[in-house]
Sequence to fold (660 residues):
Amino acid sequence: MIPLQKIHSRFVPLEMENVDTDQIIPARFLKATTRDGFGKNLFRDWRYENNDETKPKADFVLNQSQFSGEILVAGKNFGCGSSREHAAWALQDYGFKAVVSSFFADIFKNNALNNGVVPVKVSDEFLAKIFALGNEATISIDIDKQTITLDASGLQETFEINTYKKTCLLNGYDDIDYLIANKQAIEAYEEKQV
Amino acid sequence: MAKTLFDKIWDKHTVQKIEDGPSVLYIDKHFIHEVTSPQAFNGIEKRGLKVFRPQQVVATADHNVPTINQHLPIKDELSRLQVQQLIENCKKHHIELYGLGHPFQGIVHVIGPELGVTQPGMTIVCGDSHTSTHGAFGAVAFGIGTSEVEMVFASQCLLQTKPKVMRINIEGELHNGVLSKDIILYIIAQITASGATGYFVEYAGSAIRSLSMEARMTICNMSIEMGARGGMIAPDETTFAYMKGRQFAPGNGLWEKKVAEWKELYTDADAVFDHEININASDIQPMITYGTNPGLGIAINGHIPVTDTIPDEGERNNIIKALKYMGLESGKSLLGMPVQHVFIGSCTNSRIEDLRLVASLVKGRKKNENVQVMIVPGSQQVARQATAEGLDKIFKEAGFEIRQAGCSACLGMNEDKIPAGEYCISTSNRNFEGRQGAGARTLLASPLTAAAAAITGVVTDVRELI
Fold:
C-alpha cells in the first residue's frame, strides 16, 4: 500500500443513505481476476442511462463537472450489503482517497482500510454542514491527528481509527506483513489445540 | 467470568491481541468461490507465498455458473475464465474444489452445512457476506473482503476488531404460514438495515429453539442485512441430529466427544450483552418488502408507510427514492398487485425444506399464466433429494422451471436475470436497485409467499391458500 498521511481536496457530495455495494459496483462487473480498472464502472447504473457510456445521467453527481476531488461524502450506512472488495477498488481506482459519512457498514470499512481508502466517520451534524458547503469548498483530513477540517470555517471534528490501522496507513503497511511476521505464534497456537 | 456464546468462541480462537488494535483471530474453516478469490491467489503468489493450510479451505463455483446445461462450457467468456481460474488455483494450491459437475457442488452456504464441514464452535470465513449463514450451528462465521481472503490464505488468521454483542430473543409461538424468513424480515424491518452494524448477533428464545436447522440458517443468513457481522444460534439436539452422519461430520468414536464439547457452547446465564431486543413471535405476520433495502418490509396485509408522515428527512427521502424505483405508491397495500416473476432459490431459501414447503402448497395446482417461475436448488445434493422425493414432478406439473444449482437470479451476475421494470417475488436476501438485473424490481418474501404468488400471479397472503 502507498503511505497516506494527509488529504486536502474538494469533495463530491452523494447525499444519499444506505448506499450499498451493489450500487458502488454492480455484480456483473465482478468477473475480473485482477484488481485494476474498476473505476470506470463505479456507480455504473446511477451514472449512465441503460448502461450506455455515451449517455451520462445529468442528475448524478459524478457527471456534474462542478464537483470533483479525492473525497466522497455520503449519507449514513455507506457500503452496506455485499462483502465485495471491488467496491473499495472501484472508489480507489476512480481517485477517491477518503469517504466521509456518519456511519459505515463494517465489511466495507475493513475493505477500504485494506486498500488505503480512509473511512472518516463524522457526526450527523458535521455531515450536514459538509453537504451545506459550496462546490468550491475544500476539506482537510489529517490521519495522524485524526482530524477532518472544513478549511473555510476551520470547523473540525476528530474521527476514530485504531492505533494499529493508523500506523499501517501512515507507513503503507498491510495486515499480511504483520501476520506473516507472527507465524511462529500462529503455529504455536495450532499445536496447543491438538 | 460469565461469557456469551460469541465470546467463548472468539476468545478460544484469539492467537494474540494487538494493543489498541485488532486481534489475531485463528480461522478453522475457509470457504472460497470464484468471484472473490482470484485476486487473493494473485496476491500470495506475488509475495512468493503458498496457501498456509490448504486442508482448511473448501472451494466451490456458484456465483457465475449457469443454471441450465451445466455440462456444457460456460457461454459468457469472463464467467468461464473466472471459473477456470478457480480450478487452476485450487489445483496449484492443493485445495479441495467442488466445482461444476461435482456431486457436492452448490451455493457455498448450502454445501458447507449439508456436508457437515460447518460445525459448532468453529470460526468460519468466506469472501461473501452471507457467510453468517453458518452461525446457525453455533459457529462464529462472517463475510470478508478479498484482502482478508489473502490474509487467511497466507496465515490461516485474520486481524479483526472484536465486535459488540447483541441478543435478539424471540419468544412464543409462530402463526400458521409464518416462516423463519418472515422472522428475519420482521426483525430487519424493526431495527433497519443498519440496526445491528458493529454487532455480532445471537438469536435465542423459544421460537428460535423450535426451528429446524435449515430454518435457522435462513435467519442467520440475513444477519448481514441489518448490518451485523454475523448471527449465531447456540447448538442443541436439533443441531446434533442434523449433523450426525453427514459426510465430514465427526465419525463414530469421535462423535460423542465432539457433542460433549459442543454442549458447552451456550451463553452463560448471567452474561451481559451490549444490546438486547425482545420480540413476541405472535406479532410476526408473513412479510414482504416494498423498497430497495431489506429493512423496508411490511406485513403482507399491511400498508406501505405514508411518506409525508415520516419525521426523519433522510429516511423520508430514502423511501421516496425507493418507491420511485419500485414504481409503488406511499400508503398502499401490495396485496393483489401483479408480479411477472417468482424466484425460489439463493443461499437464503434453496434448501430441501424450502422446496418441500413450496411443493406442499403447489401440489395439484398450476402457476398463473402471466408469471414465470424459476426454482433453483441450492446444491446438487438438494436437487437429487428433490427428485428422489418426487418434488420435481410437482413443480413441473405446476409449470415451474427447475434449474441446476447456483446463486442464479439472486445477484444479476450469471445468465439468470429479471428484466428492467418487472416485478419479482424472490426468496433471496437483497432487494437493492438492480440486484436481480439492471432495473429489476425485487420483493423479498418467504418461500410460501413466493409460491402463493406463483399460483395467483399477484401478491397474496399465503394463509388464504393453506
